[in-house]
Amino acid sequence: MNVNLPNVNLPKIKFVDEFKSFIARGNVIDMAVGIIIGAAFTGIVNSLVKDIVTPIIGVATSGMDFSNLFIALDGKTYATIAAAQEATAPIISYGVFLNAVINFLIVAFVIFMMVRTINRLKRQEEAKEAANPPVTPEEVLLLREIRDSLKK
């Protein structure tokens, strides 16, 4: 079924034009690409921390886990967080918080080391480029001389 709509000239909405201009800017696209790359990089960092760094730290600390450290606010004593939660006791799970802080510090340190390594590699590459500037082909030099002589 075909529906013929009347040809109506809608007034241009300034907001739409501004939005198109905003989206078309390079920095918005760069930001979107950065977010996508950042999400992919997050997976790499999380795997590095979870699968490589954390097990090494676990061996070094004899598998120390703070997640079962808590304070029951009702004054009673519970063997585990699960038992306190089952009794619907209000608790402060400071062990879970400590694990989150430790995990954050590990992730931050791993990212720092990766960025530090990348920056060092960039500096080495820049030093190589500075030490070995690109050689200009002789044809280009000749064309420059001709251009300069024609300007005079």
Task: Give an overview of the whole structure.
The protein is an all-alpha fold and 152 residues long. The chain has a domain of 50 residues. It contains 5 helices and 2 strands. Strands 1-2 form a two-stranded antiparallel ribbon. Helix 2 crosses helix 4. The protein is elongated and about 95 Å long. It starts with 13 loop residues before the first helix and ends with a helix.
Estimate percent helicity.
55-70%
Mean pLDDT: 84
- Number-wise, the strands total 2
User: Could you state the order of secondary-structure elements as H and E?
Assistant: HHEHEHH
Report the portion of residues in β strands. Answer: under 5%
Q: Outline, from the CA principal axes?
A: elongated
Q: Structural class, please? A: mainly alpha
Separation of termini?
A: 73 Å
| Major sheet: arrangement of strands | 1-2
The poorly predicted ranges are none
How many helix segments?
5
Largest sheet: 2 strands, antiparallel
Query: For the CA atoms, what is the radius of gyration?
Result: 31 Å
Give me some keywords for this one.
about 150 residues, mainly alpha, two-stranded antiparallel sheet, 5 helices
Ordered list of secondary-structure elements with their pairings:
Elements (H helix, E strand, L loop, with lengths): L13 H11 L1 H35 L10 E2 L8 H6 L4 E2 L1 H38 L6 H14 L1
Antiparallel strand pairs: 1-2
